[in-house]
């Protein structure tokens, strides 16, 4: 028995088709340029008054011929509207049904606006339409089945909208369709198996939807003209059909990235025109098929984040057109074949997070087109070639971290003058850093952490001075090496754009130089696990960004005892305490203790609930954040706390009591005498009691 729903759908579609043809012939005589004008004026009326490009305000006037209107083109024979192009006009509105009266319309393009709502059924009357671009608007609902009636349509762009539901089967009826783009919508369900069979189809883009299920049958008898297929960022599953590539002799671009595909790759060798293959973020497994290495026109091969295994075949060198080779996050092993050096057009080479071993072939460093090289997290060993950098004029990114590479850092690395990231983290490099490192003028990140570098005081002084030429330097990470000497004053010559400076576990001795306060952009500084002594320089207080993610100035002071240890002398003046968070004894007595950290924590509590920093301009002379809170407790704590905390009137009394208790605790933390301050363990216990009391009060109201 026939499905009633399917029957009703077919009947409705038939009636719509009949109406379309009746309209086409019965009204052929009465439709004219006046009809076209009325349709366009109806569109104008459906568009918001916001018309930033003055398309309608100054141009679409009933007093001027419509063939002179912006975006309107008329045919020379019938003087009817043939094309309407309102793309990139920043228009907001809906499409009126009157547009269906533009019966001579061949091209309709309104992409990159903010049209919304559903598409009127009357658009099915546009039987001459060949080009329809509704992309990057806010249309919603399902893609209407009547689109299958536009049997002269060659291009259909619906991408970047809010269409949902399944892809209508009726689209497969458009036998003239060459390009279809439904990307960036909310389409779901399976891909209709008939969709790829449209005889003239060359391009299909279904990127970034919610399409699911296997694709085992969709390529059977697919159009042999297909050149471009993008199925990425969906929920498709299963394997690629074994016959798939036999059906697509003209394929130039294929992306199935970000899906749930698995199994091994089928033979690909028949795709002699394939230029781009994107397989990343799936669960493909097995080895690289030998047939893939016969696709000599391949320029982009992205296999990132799968489960591929085995070795990288030497035949990879046959793909001499490659510009982009990404094999990262797989399970490849064995040595990197020297034939990679034959890829003289390569710009990106990434094999990070695999199991490659052995030395890096020196041939790779002779590829002058390279811009990014990442071999992070493998088992690579051996030395880097001494002339490395001589032939890398375009290299901007080099990451060799987390391997077993040894030897010295080649001096010629400074010839790779475009480098902005140099990451040699967690290897076994020895010796020093090339003193000419400052020639890397674009350097932003230098990470040499956890190596066996041995750098003397004079070398480090020269290196810091050299790095002062790197005006864009943001990250300098030298921790877990052997500096074994005093931190030179030239650390203050580093770029004022420096944000991260990690020098922990470096056996640094002596004092922290005052010049470190010149690094005004620092947000993270680690000097722990060294042999530092002496005073903490007052200039540390200038590093107001050494703080939390909100750039609130407290970390620079809070935790000083942890940095230097209890009882270390600080031969500073009283001005040190004006930084805002430091306890007064840091200046008057010169002693660091955990009681001082309690003081800083009290200031931090006040700041949290008042949203006022102790360094605020309002605090001058004798007035401070502590004084402000102290005075408010005598009057009304509600006058000083952040007003957004009091938005719920039902909890007003409970909130007031909670704030009084919290601010009282903060003041106990900030007692002038260290002996009178509450212990940090009691701070935690008191805060817990305040919290429990508050929860009890609001639950019982």
From TrEMBL:
SMART domains the UniProt entry points to: LRR_TYP
Record's keyword terms, sorted: ATP-binding, Cell membrane, Glycoprotein, Leucine-rich repeat, Membrane, Nucleotide-binding, Receptor, Repeat, Signal, Transmembrane, Transmembrane helix
Location in the cell: Cell membrane; Membrane
GO CC terms, sorted: plasma membrane
Pfam families: LRR_1, LRR_14, LRRNT_2, Pkinase
Phosphoprotein keyword on record: no
Coiled-coil region(s): none
The protein's name in its UniProt record: Protein kinase domain-containing protein
Lineage: Eukaryota, Viridiplantae, Streptophyta, Embryophyta, Tracheophyta
